[in-house]
Amino acid sequence: MHDSLTEIEKYIIQKVKEIREERGVTQEDLSLELGKGSSFIAHIEAPSKTAKYNIKHLNDIARILKCSPKDFWPDKAY
């Protein structure tokens, strides 16, 4: 899964996915809310890809999902 991503990047991608799914938001809907192409989130969440979020993405996703950007981060450093 995400072979060339760091552990922290993998963690954040997984946390965004978990919170997105808990909120009942599809990959496509979140992508479009971000002003991206419909497959933007799918591309990041795909295990075979190396795409990742930047800080602006995480802030915007937190706003859309009505949570804190801190919710995407682990309690301890990797």
From TrEMBL:
Lineage top rank: taxon: Bacteria
A GO molecular-function annotation: DNA binding
Ranges where the HTH cro/C1-type domain occurs: 16-72
Coiled-coil zones: none
Name this polypeptide is given: Helix-turn-helix domain-containing protein
Gene source species: Sinomicrobium oceani
